[in-house]
Structures are given as structure tokens and as C-alpha cells.
Amino acid sequence: MPFYFISYISAFFCGALAVFALFKDKRSFVHQAFAVGMIALGIEGVFRGLSLQAFLTEQIHQWQRAGFYTAAFLPGIWLAFSLSFSRADYKKYLKKWRWVILATFLFPLVTVILFGKFLFQGEPIWETFSHWLLPLGWSGVLFHVLFLIASIMILTNFESTLRASSGTVRWKIKFMIFGLASIFGVRIFTSSQALLFHAVYASIDRFYIILIILSNLLITFSLLRSRLLNVDIYLSETVLLRSLTILVAGIYLLIVGILAKLISFLKGHSPFFVEALLVFFALLGVCVILLSDELRQRIKRFIHLHFKRPLYDYRKEWMEFTQRTSCQLNMNDLCSSVVNMVSDIFGVSSVTIWLHNQKKEKFVLCGSTVFSKSQSQGLRMARESSKEILHFVKNYRMPIDTDRPEVFLGVDSECFREARIKYCVPLFGGDDFLGIMTLNHKITKEEFSLEDLDLLKMISDQTAASLLNLKLSEDLQKAKEMEAFQTMSTFVVHDLKNLASTLSLTIQNLPLHFDNPDFRNDALQVMGQGVNKINNMCSGLSMLSQKMELKKVETDLNKLIHTSLNCLNGSNNISIIHDLKPVSKLMIDPEQVQRVLDNLILNAKEAIGDGGEIKLTTEQEDSWVVFSVRDNGRGMSKEFIEQSLFRPFKTTKKQGMGIGLFQSKRIIETHQGKIEVESEEGRGTTFKVFFPIKSI
């Protein structure tokens, strides 16, 4: 069969996988990215086949160039897929890598589109009747450099996904990653060959076509399946595992080498693609062996039986558990870490943590190596069987074998088979029942030993303690949120009180100055500003849990002070002196700073009583604009200033709430400013507010 025909078969295979992926879920981004990537591989395969079928120089150049154009889309598509495949929070990774993804699209496309005439250099060189090599130009070499870098990034992401998986999830995705990693592993090989010889070889294209078909078979497979003397020697388990792994890999590669020599002996010099296929199968076989969970568990058991007495290094397991769980700040992340660790330790493909919902008296999935939260909702475990199982597990503290009929009387065994439960471990935090951890059979089909159950009990107890701590932390956080809500509500009441004082002054003076048009205009302006402030406070109530956000604009501080003075307009029983010198404009939030000015001026008015005096000044000192409010009122004690000033609910006023100065200090410090106070009992108080001229 001619190789160009095999290339068309590989292209059809890629297209069929793309259609199958879209048929399974056409709305999923991962499925869409996979389908687009496979279609691009298929189109590239068609162009490779046409170039292998061609004999004229112009045709070879034409189809090879078309293949380069199609291949330019592959790095970006597959990098996006590698960042989203089997990752629940893939959007976070796509956002984090967005510029890299853009670069992997942009650079190869620019190379082949703008500098396409420099992809090749000269005519094809015919080695035999059907074998040619096509010298590359500088843009062709650059394209292979870019593709090589992108392929390494794609393989790195696939490796990260595979390492992070465990249990049934790894079983499901392993061959998908092997298949795609094979494609880009071969692309690394072909690109390195092109860079080494500065040419495209027809023989390498043939090798690549065969590998595409083999890789597609792996992808299809992934899609279809979702005693010696007792010697007391204590050796490093890590060294033993590595030694055995190297031994197995060495034996495997030795066999492949013998087969290659045998082929060479029987048939003379074997074709290049046959040798390359043998190397590929050797590397793929090593990967399968190294990532086999069952083999790893059997090696671990063999070491336990023949080299060392303890099955587990408890100190090592304890340290690993602490490292994995100590940084988790919510229950979902904690449970996900625990189930993955338990799956790795005991060689169990299905591990799930179900938490007890006390209000609904049922189990809710919190972490699993096999089920997602949406899948768990259809299980009997989360529906009708919850109450029956709860009734029994609350009476046990040790792991329970669900095959014991006397334990779960009346519970349908199909519920356990559906949820893949062989062992059930209750999770108690003190006397509080928190949930259960469930495990399926071991991969090796062995029963849990007493040593297994002891370690499982220790892990479950520590998990329950961590869950209880997180639960208590959440309760404490809710209490703090309620306290913050009450505090912020007090802030709003305080602002309303200030507005009420302002409007009260205006209404008191209204009968005296009603005939004055200027006063009426000022009164209407004060009322309008009051309504706007009330609206702003109402909208601010919906953002109580958020940090203070400043809307900075260039503002004249003196104008804000004049606006605040309008609230005292017409008050004849106090004397207001202002000395507002020209100062630089500030980048501040005028609404927030207006609150500070209103608070300080109204506080001064309430402190002096009738016949008092308030002096307002502004000046510029170095890189600061300074606003001062001085009154000759009753003043404050030194003790109050040191211990209570600027603290909420601490005040010297009879009807005060102790909120204004606390709120003002927060606003000033958010502007990177500062506030100072000088006061003496019976002689008055001076507040100085400093705003930086170059506010960030």
C-alpha cells in the first residue's frame, strides 16, 4: 500500500475522532479544542500525503507549504487543550497562559505567512525513486524551532495533569495523554531532525504518518473506556523502587535492542521508519510500565514481604499528609487532596469523601477520584439511601467492610456497587459526626490487611480533625461577617445622623431667611446633596463585604471645604474663620474626603456649643497638602487620645456613636495620608489632615 494512501487514512482517522468528540459534548470547550486540533492534524495529513504522491518540484513545494500553513495552528490549539484537559478550573489556567497561547498562535503564523517564500531553499534532492529531501530556508528552520518549544510546553502540561491525577481518573485519561504525548513527542523528534539537517525528509514524514495512526488508536482506546526467606533488612524504599524500575526498564530496552538486531540480521539494513518505530514502542512501553498503579502496588507488596517488615513508613506518610493538607483553606480542596493521597497509598482507584448535611439529613460529595459533583447527584448514596446508611455508620468508629450483611441491614447492596464502595470509614470530629470516607477494592484485588486498616483509621481521624477545624473557621468567619455588617450599618446610621444635623440647621434657618433668594438656592443645594448622599449610602450597603474602593479624580480641596461650610450656613451662634491658601490639586476620591471634612467640622461645632469659634486652614508643606480644623471647645484628655481616639464606639459626646473619627481615619489612610491631633481639656482641639500631593 503506498504511503500517501496511509496518510489519507490517518487524516480520516483524525476527522472521525473529531466528530466523535463533538458528538459526545459539542458545548464543552475541551471537546471543541480537541476536535479543532484533530481536524488540523487531519488536514495536515492530507497535505503530507499529497506531497508524498507528487513528483514535480512545484507540487512538492506547494503541498509542503500548505502543510506548514496548517501546522502553524497546531501549537496554539493543542496548548489550549493541554491547559484545559481534565482540569476543573481550566479557565484560570487559560487566563494565566493567555499571552503564551496568543504567542503560540501568532509567531508560527507570522513566520509562514509573511516569510513563506523563505520556507524552502532550492529543489528537492532525490535519494531514491520515492525518497527525497527538501532543504529548508531560514523561516522553515525558525518554524521548527518555534514548534519544538511549543511541543515541549504541551508535553509539560500533559505530564502535570497526569501526575496530579490518581485512581480511576488516571485510569481514564492515561491513554489519551499517551496518545497525544506520542504525537508531540514525535514532533519533537521530527523538528530536531529538521534543525539538525536543515531539510525535510520524506522518510521522516512516512514515520510520522504511521505514528499518527498508532497514537489515534491509543486515543480511541481512551475514549472507549471511560515467598523467600524472611530477612530483616531495612533499606530505603525509594532506592528500592527506583532500582526495580530501572531494572524493569533496562530489561525491556534490552529486549527491544535484541529484536532490532534480529530484524537487521534477518533482513539486512532495516528501513529508517522501522528502527524509529522500535524506539517509539520502547519509550511508550517504559512510560506505561512506570505509570502502572497496579505494578507499583505489587512492587511495594513484594518489597514488604521479602525485604522489610513494615508495609508503610508511618513517619513518611504522616509528613506527606501534613504537607498536602496544611495549606488547604476550604473543605473541597482538603477532601480532594485527601482522596488523592489515600488512592496513591493503598492503590485504590475509587476513593470518595461524603460529608453529612445535617439540615437535609443526607450525604453530599466533597471530594472523589472518580465522581464529579454533578455525577454524584444521580447516585442512590446521595438520595434515598443516605438516611439508612447514616443510621448505621454513626455507631462505628473503625473502618467497615460493606460486605458484612449484619452491619447494613436493610440497605440495598446495589447502592454500594453503584458508588464503588467496599470500605466505609466514619469521620468523627470529637463527638460530631462529619461524614464518611469510602473506598473501593484495591487495584491488586487484595483485601485490606490490619496494617492497612490501622493507617486508614489514622488518616481518617486526621482528616476529620482538619474538617472540624475548617468548619469552626467557617462559623467564625460568618460571625465576623455579621459583626462587620453591624459595624458598617452603624457607619451608615452615623452618616445619616450627620445629614440629619445638616438638614436640621437648614430648616431652622429657613423661616428667618426664606425671602433671601441666595439662601433658598443654598438650601435647595444642601437638600439635593443630602438626597444624593443617602442614595450613595444605600448602594454602598450592597458592597459591605468589599474593601473600600477609591474613585480618584483631580480635586481642589478648598472647593470641598466650601461645600462643607454650606452645611453651617446661617448659623449665627458660632464663629467660623477660614484661611484657605492656594494649594495643589489632589488625586483623591471627593465623595470620601467630603465625609472626612463633614465629620471634622460637625464634630468641632458640637464640641464648642454656642458662642464658640472654629478655624479652618489649608496650606502646603513640602509634598503634603495640610487641612486643619481648630476649635476652642471642651477638648479631650490625654488618656482618651491615647486609648480611645479613632476607635469605633468610643466618644466624648453625649449622643455620639464613636464612628466618625474611626471612619475618617480609614479614609485618610486609604489615600495614603495621615491625621494628627492636639488637644487639651478646657482649651480646645486641633485636627490636622495630611494628603500627599502625588497620591498613588
List the helices and strands and how they pair.
Layout: H1 3-24, H2 29-53, H3 57-71, H4 74-84, H5 90-96, H6 98-114, E1 125-126, E2 132-135, H7 138-164, H8 167-197, E3 199-201, H9 202-224, H10 237-267, H11 272-290, H12 293-306, H13 314-325, H14 331-346, E4 351-357, E5 362-368, H15 373-376, H16 386-393, E6 400-401, H17 413-418, E7 423-429, E8 432-439, H18 450-513, H19 517-541, E9 553-555, H20 557-565, E10 575-580, E11 586-588, H21 590-608, E12 613-621, E13 624-631, H22 638-643, H23 660-670, E14 674-680, E15 684-692
Parallel strand pairs: 10-12
Antiparallel strand pairs: 1-2, 2-3, 4-5, 4-8, 6-7, 7-8, 9-11, 12-13, 13-15, 14-15
Helix pairs in contact: 1-2, 1-9, 2-3, 2-4, 3-6, 4-6, 4-7, 6-7, 7-8, 8-9, 9-11, 10-11, 10-12, 13-14, 14-18, 18-19, 20-21, 21-23
N/C terminus separation: 72 Å
Low-pLDDT residue spans: 227-254
Class computed from helices, strands and strand pairing: alpha+beta
The CATH topology name of the largest domain reads Rhopdopsin 7-helix transmembrane proteins
Mean pLDDT: 76
Proportion in helices: 55-70%
User: How many individual helices?
Assistant: 23
Give the CA-based shape: flat
Under the CATH scheme, the architecture of the largest domain is Up-down Bundle
CATH class of the largest domain: Mainly Alpha
> How many β-strands, per DSSP?
15
**Beta-strand percent range:** 5-15%
Q: What topology, given as strand order, has the largest sheet?
A: 5-4-8-7-6
The biggest beta sheet is recorded as: 5 strands, antiparallel
